[in-house]
Structures are given as C-alpha cells and as structure tokens.
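Researcher: Sequence of DUF1013 domain-containing protein follows. Predict its structure.
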Amino acid sequence: MAQTLLMPKATAVWLVDNTALSFDQIAQFCKLHPLEVKAIADGEAAQGIKGLDPIATGQLSRDEIARAEKDPNHKLKLSEPKVRVPDSKRRGPRYTPVSKRQDRPNAILWLVRNHPELKDAQISRLVGTTKSTIEQIRDRTHWNSTNLTPMDPVTLGLCSQIDLDMEVEKASKGRPLPTAAELGATLQSANETENLGFSYEREEEKEIDVNAVFSKLQSLKSDRNQDEDDDRY
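Model: Prediction complete. Tokens:
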C-alpha cells in the first residue's frame, strides 16, 4: 500500500509557519501547486485551516526538515510508518481445508434435507462446492450416495451458524406462509371453543325483615346499658 500524506493542505500550513522550506519543497511534499503554497504564505488561502504537525503524526522527521532547509534542491520524503496496515483481501470463494473436503457431501445432503428452500448458489457459498455436485446429491446420482450421512455443516466446521441463519432467512423471505393443512393442524370452530358447560345462576335476593333488625338493635342497646350500670357499682 503506497504511503500518502495525511491532510496535505493543513500540513502545508504548518510547514509555511514553522519552517524555512521553499515553496517548491512544500508544494512537492504536499502535492500542491507552488502558487497555492505562496497564497497560503500570503494569507490569501487556507485561512480557516489549522496547521497539522507532520512530526507529531510521524510522517516527517526533524532531521529531514533540517536537511531540506540547508539544501533547497532536497526533496522531502515521508518517514517509514511504525505500523503497517495489511491490504484488505478481496473476498473470493470460500476455502475449505483438505481435511474437511470429504465431509462436504454429507453437509450438502443435510442442507438439502433440512433446508429445501435454500438455492444451489446459497449452498455453494456455505460449504464451498459446485452446483453440479449439489444436483448429483439431490438426485441421488453422486458416486458415493449410498455411503452419505446427513451432517450439520456448522458441526463439521464448514460454515458458521450466523452464515447459515442468514442464508436461510434470505431464502425464506420469498416463500408463502404455510397453510393449516401443511402444519398438520386445523382451527377449531367457534362452537367448540365456547365454554358452554358453565352456567351462572343469579342468587335470589332475600327479603329483609325490618322488625327483626330493629329488635336485634334494641337488644344490643339494652345489653350495653346493663354493662354501664354494672361498671358504676
């Protein structure tokens, strides 16, 4: 990966303000035009840009700046980075180790039986196989069909559970919802679900005997008066 200068215009602002480098040297290092560097020095350009110290960012050393200040013909060079970021690898077909390639037919048979909604391209992405092999296993024309045993590709280490779930979810989006007959169950009728065995009987209201109530209150009052008389003596 080629080295590139971070924030070239901000770096040019710092070099103009803090070094004695020529406009051509700064322009060559920051990939700018010398007139643009001159405009920065005159305050006509990059007025709102804060200078970025290339020494602090590790992109330029003090010795390199001092050498360039002494020699106007010296071209500044970027310092070697202390940490190198590896180039991102392009995503290609899934690689299957040699030790696990013999398990791929068993994994394909498991996927075909347990997830018939998966397309051949999805199975191919999961276990790293070809469409012709998938068709042979599905049609039972594979040379080793009699000895194949369905095995979970996640258990075999051919793919992760997350990848499998994602492919199954993608394949299930376009499928219609299963009917009640396919699920092996039917809805009960309203008459069957109604709770007809319970009956609610309303209790008959009892008539209140007014005379009995007043007689009860009168007896309680007389008992209370008798208790108060006993307490006085």
